[in-house]
Every structure is written in structure tokens, then in C-alpha cells.
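--- STAGE predict ---
source: upstream dedup step, 1 unique chain passed
mode: sequence only
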Amino acid sequence: MNWNWNETTIDFPFSSENLKNLLNTVCRKENRFSQFEFIKWCDNLTMAFEEDEAEASNELGEIAFGIARDIECQWDIFLVNTYSLKELQNLDLSKVKLPQDWFKEWLKQLNEE
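--- STAGE serialize ---
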């Protein structure tokens, strides 16, 4: 298979548990990776879930898939609503930060499963 996924410095297998662990790290502000790296990992997670019906079909997988999809979509919306096209063309995405409360809310949703 020819994978065309986002390259990211986060080298964790794609799973619901790792999404929870990474979200915990971001919420505690202990992440050594940028939010952009996390967003790319979440995007890859959704692609992995689409490829692996087994994980995505269990309840936790469905919740994690929805949260990972929301994270990547909110990132895109945040960029479009925050920066002009000209700014986006020169923006260092590793410096962009979503509101911390968003990550706490996603973690809360994931923990409610």
C-alpha cells in the first residue's frame, strides 16, 4: 500500500489510548512537540481508523475517531478565522497554539466513554 500520511515527530502507534495519553500531555503542558505535530498525528489517526475497521468499530474507537477528527477540523477553522491568506503563506505552523481549554474539553469527552 502507498501511504500518503503526514510526517510527524510523534512516534506513537495510532490508538485510542495513545490519543488519550497525548491529550493528557498537552493538557498538562508537558508536550515536547508542537500542537501542529499533534494535529498531524490526529489526522493520521483518523486515516488509520478508516483503514482498520476493527478499532474504529468499537465504542472507544468511534469516540476517539470523532475527537481526532474534531481536533484536526478545529485546527483548520482556527487558522482560517485567525490569519489572512498572506499570513498563512508565511506562517510557522509549529508556533500556532489553539486555546488550552479546547484540549481539556476533548480530553474530558474522551474520558467520558
